[in-house]
């Protein structure tokens, strides 16, 4: 699924806007996406393999951290000094 | 009571509030993008600045600590009837009263923050409402005067000037003169980044355009994000050059290719200049962006007084949210 889109500006509009408007990207808010689900503590977007903790905001932001990457970096087993 | 001015979608604020709860500190959070807090009245004689939040009246002048994170108040802090609010009032100019009301409200908010920030000595204050948006060009000039290198910067309005600069500098980038676009609407999120102007893009640009900031592209070794909190600097190096997607702006990182970000020892002489800039701007919190180029030069880009700091805090284990909660 395409997540980022660019604004469709006419040449006439561009003449009246700063250059960086040429590059503005937008995406659908995650809670408006069909693959969005929500339980008590986590929002999940399946095609990103991503979940993030519920932050208590009225709306989850769409910039998200891929926790699967963090999990992969965690060592498998820890041994405490006592052991 | 700790008073926090922020926005509903700011995760750093939420993380700090979690620490405040952990420390059993009493706080009130006022968001500029929700309707939970309504302005009631200001009584100069009796030192009362009253808002209502969840049907409870709160005197903001009871605050012992204030953190101006961002925004805080907006027209959503007033019980307006939106249907009638936008109805034309002045015959010839449909939205005259709306713009005028915004100026009226801005005067009120400016005064509220003047009163709150005037309580230095009586109240701990982090952040500065009056310096929440710093002029980028003024900052570049200030950094240059202090001896920091800055990118070659131009404000131009024509494609001809753009082509000339591109030939002269090799690579050029553009970004907003003030704040970029970071807009969350009910359905969409809109973002602007620092962007490279390639020959392909150049062809799509009209002959003339609104005044735009264009800078020479710098060959980066790595980027630095330096968060300043009460004269302490917390630095992070971001190896954004490794990925094509993040070479021009590391914020464009995809979740599966986040650039390596590590704690960084900033040279003392650079740190001293950054602290001087903070002092000149009357700021005690702010996020600096710098680049270290391929010749190991430190190049100043900007400071954002209300910039994100959890993106520095989390990868570097600085626990800035905890530190801020402790200060408050």
Structural write-up:
The complex is a heterodimer of chains A (83) and B (328). Chain A has one domain. Chain A is 13% helix and 20% strand. Chain A is of the alpha+beta class. In chain A, strands 3-4-5 form a 3-stranded antiparallel beta sheet, with no helix packed on it. In chain A, strands 1-2 form a two-stranded antiparallel ribbon. Chain B has 328 residues and is an alpha+beta fold. Chain B has 3 domains: 129 residues, no CATH class; 118 residues, ATP-grasp fold, B domain (D-amino Acid Aminotransferase, Chain A, domain 1); 66 residues, no CATH class. In chain B, the strands form 5 sheets. Chain B has a 5-stranded antiparallel beta sheet. In chain B, helix 1 packs across helix 9. The radius of gyration of chain B is 22 Å and the shape is globular. The mean pLDDT of chain B is 88. The chains are: A alpha+beta (83), B alpha+beta (328). Chains A and B meet through strand 2 of A and strand 11 and strand 13 of B.
Protein topology:
The complex is a heterodimer of chains A (83) and B (328).
Chain A (H helix, E strand, L loop, with lengths): L4 E2 L4 H4 L10 E4 L7 E3 L3 E4 L4 E4 L13 H7 L10
Antiparallel strand pairs in A: 1-2, 3-4, 4-5
Chain B lengths: L1 E5 L4 H12 L4 E5 L5 E7 L4 E6 L2 E4 L5 E4 L13 H4 L10 H22 L6 E3 L9 H10 L7 E6 H11 L2 E4 L6 E3 L3 E4 L3 E2 L2 H4 L5 E9 L3 E10 L2 E7 L22 E3 L4 H13 L4 E9 L4 E7 L5 H7 L3 H8 L1
